[in-house]
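Study this protein:
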Amino acid sequence: MERKILRILFNYLSGRRRLPTIHELEIKTGKRKEDIHRSLRELEKLQYIEWKDKANLQSIVIIEKWEREEPAIAEARKQPNQPVVKEGNADYWTMY
């Protein structure tokens, strides 16, 4: 849910030059206002957004617009010739 809201916030800001209203977030996510506020507080706790005025969504500042990568994937990007093998991941067998 948090990932979805973060993507919606960023897409609204980049495409429409504004943040969505709580009503627009309810429509886009299919969730209630309480669930959306809970997810926004979680995003703030994880330091993806900064939200000073909790009564106003327009006061949200996006700190990090993309979800963070798993450490194994981030390390693989530093060493591009090394395949990423995670337990239960079929990518190794289908991509290499």
Observations:
- The longest strand covers residues 49-51.
- The first helix runs from residue 2 to 16.
- The beta strands are 49-51, 60-62.
